Amino acid sequence: MRTAMWLALAATTLSACARPEVQIINDAAAALGGKDRIQAVKTLIMEGEGTNGNLGQNVRPDAELPIYNVTSFRRAIDVPTGRARLEQVRTPTFLTGNPAPQRQSLGVDGDIGYDVGADGTATRVSNRVTNDRRTEVLHHPLTLLRAAMDPAATLANPRTEGNLNLVDITTAAGQNLTLAIDATTKLPARVTSMSYNTNLGDVAIETSFGDYQDVNGLMLPRRLTTKVGRYTTADIRVSSNVVDGDVGDLAAPEAARATAEITSDPPANVTVEEVAKGIWYLAGQSHHSLLVEFSDHLLLIEAPQNETRTLAVIAKARELRPEKPLTHVVNTHHHFDHSGGMRAAVSEGLTVITHKLNAPFYQELVGQKHTIVPDALARNPKELKLQTVDGELVLKDSMMTVELHTIDGSPHAETLIMAYFPRERILVQADTYSPTAAAAPFAANLLENIRKRNLRVDRLAPIHGRIVPLNELVKAAQAMSSNE
């Protein structure tokens, strides 16, 4: 009897004397169900529904993200190995008509991240995406506490923020995360890790937890909400938590294993087509640009995707007319796939011309830290030179005239600009009409803007697709109207 009492007293004393960073983990583990119970878990399956935010595609830089409705959500995790797969169906709410649901199957197995298409074909994803998925597995109280209790993990920087106790965790694999627990319940409230985004730079990924329930002696959350920076990208309501259920085969498919690791963006392919005197179409991939020649300088329309693409386009522009400086870049709108190369353009000294609503966005974009992956602007810092368009801006000299017009009333974005060449009767625009796309939900709005401004357009040179006569836009708009 005395021995049992002594052991209980010793355990209490050791707990009271635990270092603050260890105590936070001990408290959270006890609240979740105890260290032994956590260590015994083999698999975790979460099923439910919710929403995804479409990152980088909001109508204004300061607006909420467009939403996908998520159904058939299932995340399966082999806890000891860290293998995991997310399967879900998501349907966009931001497209007109009856948009088709999108089926996703995204997995990670050690240093191999992979996607499985609707036809069952597996493709390997980049090392950066793989690392993000490995860390994402730890954005759950069960998996993170298990990792934190590993003797090879490091705990540091215990602190208090309001009603939360925080501790920094470096896992045995070198992943860095911060756990915050509720000071009253001791249950994990959120976990945060750092990631890299071409547009956002060094960005915090935060998952918060709520609505805990007891599952076979474990307290598990039924609400998981993830933010990338200030943007909510996932809000999942878990209807079923299954511990030690059958997760199936989570190993990377052979097709993904057989693919060499992807350490960087693929090289850019830039093709050149002269569409009129002094105007070149720089295509070759999914996002195009146009080079425009004035009497004493060059202007680029669009710096899309990432610095690999944009720097290749800039190099091609300078190769085509080496005797004239490239001085300006026109941005069609702020969406991430169309602004991903803007920091590279700034690093090359180009003045950015964009919609007036984008001014704060680009000021913030240029000022963001890019230390995780130092980009062109981090390596060659330059100040932002900005010129905005409010309704209309005419760029003109003896050789060339370009009219920049805002596209009003588009449900796609409120920051859209189209470029019109009055002498050549060519119109350049992005996303409002892409000739090779399956549908053209914004075609009628684009046509309305063309007619409202009395633009005499013969050809469209879209940022996506191919050069087409105006009549194809008219047909697309009519087709969409008849389908509504």
Which tags fit this structure?
outer membrane lipoprotein receptor (LolB), chain A, 484 residues, Metallo-beta-lactamase, Chain A, seven-stranded mixed β-sheet, 13 helices, alpha+beta, 37% strand, 2 domains
Description:
With 484 residues, the chain is an alpha+beta fold. It folds into two domains: 18-257, Clam (outer membrane lipoprotein receptor (LolB), chain A), CATH 2.50.20.10; 271-483, Metallo-beta-lactamase, Chain A (4-Layer Sandwich). Helices cover 25% and strands 37% of the residues. The protein has helices spanning 2-17, 20-32, 35-40, 127-137, 141-148, 254-257, 307-320, 336-339, 342-347, 359-367, 376-379, 443-452, 470-483; strands at 43-53, 67-78, 83-92, 102-109, 112-116, 122-124, 154-161, 164-170, 176-182, 188-197, 201-215, 218-228, 231-243, 271-276, 279-283, 289-293, 298-301, 326-330, 351-355, 386-389, 392-396, 401-406, 417-421, 426-428, 459-460, 468-469. The strands form three sheets. A 13-stranded antiparallel sheet has the order 6-5-4-3-2-1-13-12-11-10-9-8-7. A seven-stranded mixed sheet has the order 14-15-16-17-18-19-20. Strands 21-22-23-24-25-26 form a six-stranded mixed sheet. A hairpin with a 3-residue loop joins β10 (188-197) and β11. 39% of the residues are buried. Residues 1-15 have low confidence and may be disordered.
